[in-house]
Write a structure and sequence with these properties.
It contains 38 helices and 15 strands. The chain has about 800 residues and is of the alpha/beta class.
Length: about 800
Amino acid sequence: MLDHIGPDRYAEELARHRRLLRDAFRRHCGVEVDTQGDAFFVAFASARDAVAAAGEAQASLAAGLLRVRIGLHTGEALLTDQGYVGMDVHRAARIAAVGHGGQVLLSRTTRDLLDSQVVVHDLGEHRLKDLSAPERLFQLGSAKFPLLQTLHQTNLPIPTTEFLGRRRELAEVMALLAREDVRLVTLTGAGGTGKTRLALAAAGGTADAYPDGVWWVPLASLRDPTLVLEQARQALGLHGDFADQLADKQLLVLFDNFEHVVAAAGDLADVLKQSPNVRLLVTSREPLRLAGEREYVVLPLLEEDAVALFSERSFGAGAAQANTVLAICRRLDCLPLATELAAARTRVLSPEQILERLEQRLPLLRGGPRDAPERQRALRATIDWSHELLTRDEQRLFARLAVFVGGCTLEAVEQVANADVDTLQSLVEKNLIRHSEERFWMLETIREYARERLRFDGEESQAQERHGSYYCRYAESARLALNEGVDHLDWLPRLQVEHDNFRAALVWARETGQNQLEVRLVLALATFWLFRGHWVEGRQWVSQALASTALTSAQRRAALSAAAEFAMKQGDSAEAITYAEEQLASARETGDARETSSALNRLGAATVYAGDFASARGWFEQSRDVARQAGADTAVGRTTVNLGWIALHDDDLDAAAALFAEAIEIGRASDKPLLAVAIGSRGVTFRRSGQVAEAAADIAEALELAHKLGLSEDLADLIREVAAHATLRGRPKEAARLIGAEQRLRAELGSIQSQFEQDATAFPLELLQASLSDEELGEEIKAGRAMELDAAIASASALVRLTSEGHPAA
């Protein structure tokens, strides 16, 4: 229109069009809700008013150049700050979109509210772009118009339920289909991830771009790859050769469930070569590996979308059960199929009962809709479908991978499961296992199925034994590095990632009576548990190990050392002293200087927890002397830090600073955890001597290093120290929040500080109480307890760097 009449005339016509429409709406009490370009969204109190306004508007515009299409629908809408929203608003827009200029279309809901005097013409059922159920449409008046622009050239199935979630994925797939350089898009993913629903929504959403339609070719029942194109020909109602018939067509074909006929991929390549305007959308559990193929991996739902899906499909799950529903969705890996099957169980089970029964997912998740394919009516059948398509080697490896908990590295799967890379890659491509961040892993629902197959194959015991042996060797290598102060930045995160595998190996060893393997693994993990704050768990396993008759003398001393440490961490100084004394006696019998030094140092620490500082100093000095004679620099450094804290307790700040400086020098050369502790300790000394800037620099460095190393207990100490700096800086609210963050971290660790540690890192609470009311102080501490660790570290790092010279010592 603009090209034909020019911008000036068009502007005049547009202004006239808007004026006449608004006059008609106003005369019939219409409320203009929104206007975009030449489009209006108007609400009326009744269907009669809306029809009268539409008829008058069309009559007034008849003499002009512009023609408008009007859609009328009656329903409910939610009023928000952005206007009216809801499915009925969406439906009204869709009805208007399929009409022609000068035409007024009505939904059946609107037509049923009119009296018999209003002349309407029944246009029959039509499918709108959103692929909801067919909509019966009516036209106001009896004028003749072309066929409606609805989805008449399609055989896409009509979903019986609303498409929920996946808005980002839907937009991304539609964007891929819209690209001129992309003609084949394959949606891949594990069974039950919702590939078909996403593909149907995307195909329907892009229907306007294909004058010759969008077509669905279901392949689930097909077994012969040579019949794929014949199935497609029948689905499109074509005669003759499929590719020849498409040569001049502009359409989209959706091949659904291609994984079991993947040998026909070459036929699709031929179609693309011979039909330049055809695009293909494929769902498959593995890519087709064709040139130009764009693979789009369909992942499980986001948690909020899974919760919404469960709530929508369930029978009476209310908002009060939101936490339970979230827990259900997490247990089901947020798989759409599993979520819908679980929701169907709410006919007879409450969400709480469903959650209790999800310990074994597969037996519960049955009973989907009767009109769904059999393989989609039970989750086990869905996974069976994928499993049956595997080669025997792939099936064997798939089952063996179930022994890993929380994933594994390539090295682990090669050694434990005897995997070869080609078979492993094939399982990844078939979406039965995932690969990310250099780890292979399974969704827990699929892993449960694989575990059943491993048991059925009779390989479970052998796989568990290989798994336990591998992770025992792995942990022992890590312990050696950690105890020597080597590569903490590398080893601690790696051990944390494998923690679930370690736990599984320990449980298997205990349940099957593999006592020596259990002991070796416990002792290998003790240092990791101590550094990472897994004190309750570590203490339990070490206590069980000490009761074992399988311990050698050396293993018993190592267990005693760990037991003393764990007891101290949890405030049990008497038990810690008992363990340390037994360790010391045994070490002296062997004449091993390093073990003797370690036992003396541990006994000194346990004595500090008991409040006997004079005796503790003597134990620490003996430990340092023995370590020096043995040339054990790391042991010297750790004992030197402990002597520095004794000096702090005695208010001998110069001696403390000198001792910490000595430990820092040793730490920089050989032991990063020692370095973090020593630098942080010197920072406390600087703060107490009034050297606030120096203190801030040390605490900032120690905080960063402890965070990288994952030294949880040291982080708690440092966060508390930063709170002292924040108070001195005149930021009492930030300081109080950090106190709350420290309290949360200690609670998570199960940490109990000795009175000595509390005194040494004493926080000037009186300054806070002078600055904040009791209510304010309580609110800030509560806010700090709600902070995640990373947020607390970021806040502490920012605050400590604000510290400057000139502030009084605490």
